[in-house]
Amino acid sequence: MDNVVIQTRPEADERFDTVRITAAVDALAGEHAGREDVFRAAVARLLKAELIAARETAQAVLLKDRHGRRCAERLCFVQDEIIRILFAAATRHLYRSPIPSGAERMAVVATGGYGRGLMAPESDIDLLFILPYKQTAWGEQVAEAILYCLWDMGLKVGHATRSVDESIRQARGDMTIRTAILETRFLTGDQPLYNELVERFDKEVVQGSAAEFVTAKLAEREERHRRAGQSRYLVEPNVKDGKGGLRDLHTLFWIAKYVYRVRETDELLERGVFDAQEYRTFRRCADFLWSVRCNLHFFAGRAEERLSFDMQREIAVRLGYTSHPGMQDVERFMKHYFLVAKDVGDLTAILCAKLENEQAKPVPVLSRVMARFRPSVHRRRVPESDDFIVDNNRINLAAPDVFKQDSVNLIRIFRIAQKHNLAFHPDAMRNVTRSLKLINTELRDNGEANRLFMEILTSNGAEVVLRRMNETGVLGHFIRAFGKIVSMMQFNMYHHYTVDEHLIRCIGFLQEIERGGNDEFIVASDLMRKIRPEHRAVVYVATLLHDIAKGRPEDHSIAGAKVARRLCPRLGFSAADTELIAWLIEVHLTMSTVAQSRDLSDRKTIENFAAVVQSVEQMKLLTILTTADIRGVGPGVWNGWKAQLLRTLYYETEPVLTGGFSEVNRARRIALAQAEFRAALTDWPEQELNTYVARHYPAYWLKVELPRKIRHARFLRASEQAGHKLAINVGFDEARGVTELTILAMDHPWLLSIIAGACASAGANIVDAQIYTTTDGRALDTIAITREYDRDDDEGRRATRIGDMIEDVLEGKLRLPEVVARRAAARGKARPFVVEPEVTVNNQWSDRYTVIEVSGLDRPGLLYELTTAISKLNLNIASAHVATFGERARDVFYVTDLLGAQITAPTRQAAIKSALLHLLSSEQVAA
Fold first, then answer.
1. 687-707 pLDDT, tens per residue?
2. Tens digits of per-residue pLDDT, 278-298?
3. Could you give the CA distance from residue 820 to residue 869 in angstroms, rounded to a whole number?
4. Angstrom distance (rounded) from CA 143 to CA 136
5. For 343-412, what is the HEC assignment?
6. 85 exposed, middle or buried (CB, 10 Å; 0-12, 13-18, 19+)?
7. How far apart are CA 237 and CA 230, in angstroms?
8. The model's pTM
């Protein structure tokens, strides 16, 4: 076996003492001579113990030096040594061949991720056993001995045994195998055999197929992003497969390796693919992502790749992030994560541009690379500027120094592309990023630059162009306050995107509102047509800036208004319009809060809201901004119910602001809603329709959307025809990921508490509730609970269990406190969020009721505990407004004392507040 290389280290290595462990294996071979199974089991036990110890050391070193790449290299080295020891044991002690034949040769090779020489703690191992010809008994035995030992150690191993010929043939036909061989790394065994594979792979597979490989890998990347969630700004990103994650860096290197025939990343610098700064970025991104991934695996104890909320804080602490005023440690960590993801995207664009440019050079391999991305070399000047050219429908620079000659071009390039519907050439974007230092105070104050920016913001396609401006860094440099919220996440479950991505998406939805035609935005679209023309720009700037002061110690609405007062004069706004934008930012949460958590049929609610908005014009602008904001939070947050609440609040407030005049007065709106309802139920007899319409109070007709009204009517009719005292209808809202229970029962003072308790007992978390009473004393409540099961059948059975429990409690067969207590005792692990509990008790929001507003960390059973506590305080709940914003519950109760009067005594108000705060605080500690 002259060609066999069994690599062991002559001296001890602090990472893994191969010499000592090899000696221990040799001793075991002597001890168990002739008993193969016992020997193999003993070796597996020994190596497993050594691997556990090596991993513990690796984790300790990682926590100390926080160097992820070094940790991944260390773990890979340990794994390499284990495989070398196993190969030596198999060929020396188990299947020794004193005079090996030509067929008794084998190279053990690392492939795939393991082949890169970097390993996360819980990663799979991919091995290729290369043989000279077809499989032999010796080859099979050696491979099996290694694999069985690795499996006995509890490792996940992917493997293949192939001859060189077979490897080449399969690599030609299968892109996955081709990529795996591209990443091979020799471990042990027959080195010439491995060298033959590498040489033949280069000549027979790689040569002349670069274009095919690049196209396949970019397509694969797109598909992976589609599966993982397209945006790189999703707040629970996948570190491995998400956009801007490690796999994107791997794809870059695969392409570079294939096209430029490089083996190490530093060769990318020598080949001119990246300049020194870009190569440093490449290394920095990889180092950071490996630190995150290694810590994620160690903390989870499994191959966890998703950076979920319950992992984020722990990883932030492990990486040494600390809290600053206005930003938690976890938010600072995630901001860094998203900035790295953005850099990875930039590097991908740079490599693609480089590949295109190579097409013009006389290198045979590259003559056709990326041809599909550049079907012609047609170039032309842009009509209104000599500084830019159109290169295959993409805007590019006419000369390298166009930004130095006129820095306004850094804004102009985006406006011209938007105006002529041009894509951006990667070279142009690379130049923009390198010219960011030209964006100085002089450019920020330049009238032409600000005019161009306002045109970009208020013209079609603004969302796409603003996103490109953000990705290149121009937006954050031109509006410095925006730069502070780039890649900033909010550590909560309500917001699906980073702050900058949320604001840009809101602009996209604002344009959709303005275009009209989408029934989701029917009220906002109508108002957009009716605002004063000069206020169109006002609502666009307010939408872009409404969350711009997130992450500061001060309330972001107040701080954001200050930002607007400084910025808007520069953008060309008058003093009056600047103040209007600042006001919109300051009150941008008010309409949403009032609509979702106040009694809209209470006159005082409407008067208070009218006092805030002051004029119909300002209310129109606020309604439009609120709609775009809620819709921009993420999928499933905006729904028909919220749209209807905003509509109701708008039309209830309008007459107060106009001195009684309303474009659509209340009585007419009720009549219209009822007529719309009648038109939808043509199959009902008129007498039955009249009776049904009379059963609902005016508030019901104004606040409930038509499809739900129709479902309610059919449900009530069917329940009463079947003679049910209590009936439950189950529906599924896929967009919001909730199950809706509509409950019909005789009204009862404790009914809401009973429903909430039954949900808590079933482990169902209530995310919102719509509560109505009919004129004949029936309660019609719709409760939305988070889904537990994927299948609707399973969810349906769970809802039926909740219904049976409500019935049993109402009939006295079941005592809720005991059932809820049992469920609470079995509650799972703590949640990663902390929400400061708040309770307010006041009489300013209603003339008839005392209003209790409760805000705290949401959990199953919270509504039950709150309603029970309020009832024990001898209060009657007249109406409840239940809403959830991610992990934060905000519940508002309109209450009276047992005689129907408001709670006016300060001591009693303080007692109510103290009791509810104690309930919220003690649970947060217990959680």
1. 999 999 999 988 889 888 898
2. 889 889 999 999 999 999 999
3. 14
4. 11
5. HHHHHHHHHHHHHHHHCCCCCHHHCCCCHHHCCCCCEEEECCEEEEEEECCEEEECCCCHHHHCCCHHHH
6. buried
7. 11
8. 0.75
